[in-house]
Amino acid sequence: MRAALDWIRRHWTLDHNPNMPDARSKEGLFYFYHVFGARQGGVGVSPAV
């Protein structure tokens, strides 16, 4: 689990939605934040605020 969280910290950002093409990377951003925060609690990590 620690290795997975370390990888996420190195490769993910909350500046844009990584599931969208660059030109549309801001679309769905609020939903991305919602899901990201909910999953953090599910693995025992304090939500990023």
Which terms summarize this structure?
49 residues; mainly alpha; 49% helix; flat
Radius of gyration: 12 Å
Report on the biggest sheet: none
What is the beta-strand fraction? under 5%
Helical stretch count?
2
The geometry reads as flat
SSE series: HH
Q: How many beta-strand segments?
A: 0
Descriptive account of the structure:
The chain has 49 residues and is mostly helical. It has one domain (2-42). 49% of the residues lie in helices and 0% in strands. The protein has helices at 2-11, 29-42. It is flat.
Report a brief summary of the structure.
This protein has 49 residues and is mainly alpha-helical. It has helices at residues 2-11, 29-42.
SSE blueprint and pairings:
Blueprint lengths: L1 H10 L17 H14 L7
